[in-house]
Write the structure tokens for this entry.
Amino acid sequence: MTALRQPRLASVVERRLLVNYRVDPEAAARLLPAPLRPQLVRGHAVAGLCLLRLGRVRPAWAPASLGLRSENVAHRIAVEWDGPDGVETGVYIPRRDTGSRLNAWAGGRIFPGEHGLADFTVDESADRLRVAFATRDGDLRAEVAVELAAELPASRLFSDLAEASAFFRCGSRGFSPTRDGGVRLDGMELHTDAWRLEACRVESAASSFFDDPERFPPGSAELDCALVMRDVPVAWDPLPATAVSA
């Protein structure tokens, strides 16, 4: 491994909508480079969309007034691997996209995580969220509408909101492929002292990634639940580049 020299970033998660799918472990494993493998919950792999609006993004030493704002999306798969002290957990992000040209340029240069460009449509109120995006290369699109709920609606992955929140908090390290032929992964780790997730009821959800029968044969990826984080200050630390194999 070679240490990255990118700076620590600070930001505010204005909205982080996690739309989660139960996935057949074999289907998930086909999307992962070694040594990563699916992290299973009640026999299912866990994957989904992270629809993320960040505000006040800047190097941690810079004043918040200089920070930038952007809409972003990450396709995620919960993973585990064997570390020096036992099994470790995180998420593999096969693709990141952003509405910010600056983010797309800076990803992989100023901070880890290469990004494509996408166009976003957002409609938010205190108790309802609708987020849609389409990548500019035409490969991916999704549209999700949720309303906030006092408790986690029926889920086959998690028994309640507390269990779901604990699971996603343990997936704070994210790894994504680079343009160097797939021999290494960029990584970032999220830190916050104000972790807080709210439950949502899904009104509608469509994703060209998870609805693709070639990637996920019928019945191998099923919508499970949605959660949202709002107005949470966070920091992002670069992680050492990780060697992988196909």
